[in-house]
Amino acid sequence: MSAQLQKIIADNSELIQEKSKKSDQDELGKRIDALLWEVDTLQKNIAETKEMCRRWGDERKREAAEFAKLLDSSDDDQN
User: Fold this and answer.
1) Within its chain, how far is the Cα of 50 from the centroid?
2) DSSP secondary structure string, 57-72?
């Protein structure tokens, strides 16, 4: 590194550190925003999955009741 460049860096070290910290904070902010978006998406997916499971359970109960009726009617037909 040239002496002139070293002098510029030394003269502006506070500014360089401040910009570096701001850059780090900006990057951290972007990463936090991305993480929050991922968490929000995950929560939506979990809610959708829970609703699908609830509906699936209701559908299986209905199908089981229909099947039981079919079995009852086939038993009646055989008697």
Assistant:
1) 15
2) HHHHHHHHHHHHHHHH
What's the domain count of the chain? 1
pLDDT in tens, 17-67: 887 777 888 888 888 999 999 999 999 999 999 998 888 888 888 888 898
Distance between terminal CA atoms of the chain? 101
- Integer Cα distance of 70 and 68 in angstroms: 5
**Token pair belonging to 3:** 């002496």
Type of residue numbered 76: D
In sequence order, which residues have a C-beta less than 8 Å from that of residue 9 and are 6 or more positions away?
A: 16
For 3, list phi and psi in degrees, rounded to 5: -65, -35
